[in-house]
């Protein structure tokens, strides 16, 4: 409850004084509250007294903050601080402190908190971001393992019941579950089910309130026609039967959150830019190999699995759809170095395309790669086995054949009689299987007594012991020390990087429509001999912008990066507008842009140069000062910044 032990005992003393005339006493035993005095009659009296306490008054300070935030995110009108003070029975000064915390939390969600004395309190930002933030908040309010039993109605939770009831009401939760029943059962994994349910509840609440989301007509048409089981028609019918308007934009909103709700083939769109998702998968695996010294580039199954995942992840990111990985903390702990390596690899590869993977997405990618690496290690680790069978040659052969069929990758397997056996001879074997008890002076954990015919229990024990032996031998992927990531740059690469810095371009151009700005910039690049065909470069940049947002949120800077054989040499340019233009951000948000960072590379560019360009992209996303320097620093100052990024190692930069 986020209070000290002293406070708890002080409150218990106060409660006991208040309950003294009821002959009831509460005490603490084994870290739990127990009824120290009073029979069944007194228990029932206490139960009735507590039943009248509003559940919202039992919230922890963190839950109060989240509860207030949830109401603000759902609201279409401002709230007064006095409302929350009365609702939660706290002082207005406390509400003000809560608002400070809420304001900080919202910054990471591209939202702001407006607090005006006469107007009230309101969250400002796009409806899309508000809804995503609310779903994130619900997962913070209670963990998945507590949300699922409540939603599935297998366990009562008064705090959650009060939370959902006050925000949405019982009817909307009931109708939302009916919507979920329209989805094929094979699509209903627990966490995606929860996420879709929450988005559905928000959507229906907004329809009922008369404030549906506004989405582009073309997107609505694509969304409602994307599913293969006529979900939109079934949803319309259900809503109308429940006397709820079937708003097209909200039907599209729910549809894109379906488990199979990917609206287009991301790979095809990236292929237009001469980059496929399979190529992105290969680049990520290449960076992982550099980081850990393990190569999976030849594993077609791993590449296919990552390509499929990237296809969905890129779509989600461009649409502003969030994914929840309930195992994220366990993935970080289990894989350790691998998680860090995958995170760095994804930053280097995807930042060039202004694609920023969340920690949840990186967790899923780590699980994918980790499983493949562990399977590879398991296949490569051989074991040696000694079989001791005093039951004759035939029994020995039967057991030997059984073991060879059960245990993969046996390096050596020998037979020995009970007479020949000695403990000293066993040191050279990983596993000893005997059909009789052995008189070992010391307990050997690699000795197992089995039947010559290997029962199911014998097979399970052997597999478990072999897995333990192999795990001990390798230390596991998660304990692997990171390899040195820096690739020694060849002379040609260094010369190319120096020319890129020397050729850095900083120009001011008119604030025209995006297509006109791109045409002006690329035509000028053709005149200076940077590209061969400016029409092709211009078309590639425009195609990239169609795939998803190229705007760095909240910076007024847009990242334009493409690869083409029409590029003669790697190029970096900074173009500042005489004014600003509005461009599509993530999730149908319009953002002002006054500066473009353009990076061009050849299709066959060296991995060293591409990694350096990745460093620029990462800095643009993670270094809060860098976008501002791009907007305002002189050419000389920017050259020094790029020299630091491109020529110094990460250790030298600190």
From TrEMBL:
Is the keyword Oxidoreductase assigned to this protein?
A: no
Entry keyword annotation includes Repeat: yes
Tell me which residues make up the PRD domain. 163-268, 272-379
- Recorded superkingdom: Bacteria
InterPro entries reported for this sequence = BglG_antiterminators, PRD, PRD_sf, PTrfase/Anion_transptr, PTS_EIIA_type-2_dom, PTS_EIIB_2
The signal peptide here is: none
Q: What GO terms are given for molecular function? A: protein-N(PI)-phosphohistidine-sugar phosphotransferase activity
What are the PTS EIIB type-2 domain coordinates in residue numbering? 383-474
Name the Pfam families on file.
Answer: PRD, PTS_EIIA_2
Q: Where is the PTS EIIA type-2 domain?
A: 498-645
Choose any GO biological process term that the UniProt entry carries and state it: phosphoenolpyruvate-dependent sugar phosphotransferase system
- PANTHER family the UniProt entry points to: CRYPTIC BETA-GLUCOSIDE BGL OPERON ANTITERMINATOR, TRANSCRIPTIONAL REGULATOR MTLR
| Stated name of the protein | Transcriptional regulator MtlR
Q: Which gene carries the instructions for this protein? A: mtlR
């Amino acid at each position: 409850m986020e209070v000290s032990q002293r406070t708890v005992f002080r409150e218990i003393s106060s409660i006991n004084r208040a309950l003294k005339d009821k002959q009831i006493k509460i005490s603490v035993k084994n870290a739990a509250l127990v009824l120290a005095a009073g029979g069944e009659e007194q228990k029932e009296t206490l139960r009735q007294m507590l039943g009248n306490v509003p559940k919202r008054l039992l919230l922890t300070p963190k839950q109060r903050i989240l509860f207030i935030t949830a109401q603000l995110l759902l609201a279409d009108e401002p709230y007064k601080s006095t409302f929350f003070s009365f609702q939660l029975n706290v002082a207005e000064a406390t509400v003000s402190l809560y608002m400070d915390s809420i304001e900080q939390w919202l910054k990471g969600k591209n939202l702001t908190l407006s607090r005006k004395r006469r107007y009230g309190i309101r969250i400002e930002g796009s409806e899309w971001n508000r809804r995503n933030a609310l779903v994130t908040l619900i997962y913070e309010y209670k963990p998945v393992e507590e949300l699922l039993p409540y939603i599935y109605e297998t366990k009562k939770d008064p705090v959650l019941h009060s939370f959902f009831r006050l925000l949405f009401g019982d009817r909307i939760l009931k109708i939302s579950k009916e919507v979920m029943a329209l989805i094929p059962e094979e699509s209903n994994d627990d966490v995606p089910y929860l996420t879709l349910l929450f988005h559905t509840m928000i959507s229906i609440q907004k329809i009922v309130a008369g404030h549906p989301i506004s989405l582009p007509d073309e997107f609505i048409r694509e969304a409602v026609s994307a599913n293969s089981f006529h979900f939109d028609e079934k949803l319309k019918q259900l809503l109308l039967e429940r006397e709820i308007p079937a708003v097209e934009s909200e039907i599209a909103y729910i549809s894109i959150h379906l488990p199979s709700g990917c609206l287009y083939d991301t790979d095809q769109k990236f292929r237009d830019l001469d980059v496929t998702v399979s190529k992105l998968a290969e680049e990520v695996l290449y960076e992982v190999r550099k980081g850990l010294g393990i190569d999976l580039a030849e594993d077609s199954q791993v590449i296919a699995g990552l390509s499929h995942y990237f296809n969905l992840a890129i779509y989600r990111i461009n649409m502003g759809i969030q994914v929840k990985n309930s195992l994220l903390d366990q993935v970080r702990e289990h894989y350790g170095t691998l998680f860090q390596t995958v995170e760095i690899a994804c930053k280097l590869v995807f930042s060039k395309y202004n694609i920023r993977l969340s920690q949840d997405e990186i967790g899923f990618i780590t699980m994918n790669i980790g499983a493949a690496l562990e399977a590879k290690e398991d296949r490569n680790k051989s074991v040696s086995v000694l079989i001791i069978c005093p039951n004759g040659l035939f029994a020995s052969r039967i057991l030997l054949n059984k073991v060879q069929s059960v245990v993969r990758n046996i390096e050596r397997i020998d037979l020995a009689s009970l007479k020949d056996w000695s403990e000293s001879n066993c040191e050279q074997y990983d596993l000893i299987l005997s059909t009789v008890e052995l008189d070992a002076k010391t307990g050997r954990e690699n000795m197992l007594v089995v039947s010559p015919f290997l029962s199911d229990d014998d097979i399970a024990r052997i597999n478990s012991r072999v897995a333990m032996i192999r795990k001990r031998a390798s230390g596991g992927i998660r304990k692997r020390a990171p390899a040195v990531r820096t690739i020694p740059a060849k002379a040609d690469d260094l010369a190319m990087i120096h020319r890129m810095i020397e050729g850095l371009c900083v120009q001011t151009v008119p604030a025209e429509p995006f297509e006109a700005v791109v045409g002006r910039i690329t035509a000028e690049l053709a005149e200076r001999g940077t590209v061969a065909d400016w029409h092709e470069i211009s078309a590639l940049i425009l195609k990239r912008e169609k795939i998803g947002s190229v705007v760095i949120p909240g910076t007024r800077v847009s990242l334009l990066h493409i690869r083409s054989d029409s590029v003669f040499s790697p190029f970096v340019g900074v173009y500042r507008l005489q004014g600003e233009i509005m461009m599509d951000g993530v999730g149908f948000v319009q953002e002002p842009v006054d500066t473009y960072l353009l990076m061009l590379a050849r299709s066959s560019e060296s991995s060293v140069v591409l990694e350096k360009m990745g460093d620029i992209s990462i800095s643009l996303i993670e270094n809060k000062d860098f976008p501002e320097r791009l907007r305002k620093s002189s050419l000389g100052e920017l050259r020094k910044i790029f020299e630091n990024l491109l020529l110094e190692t990460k250790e030298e930069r600190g």
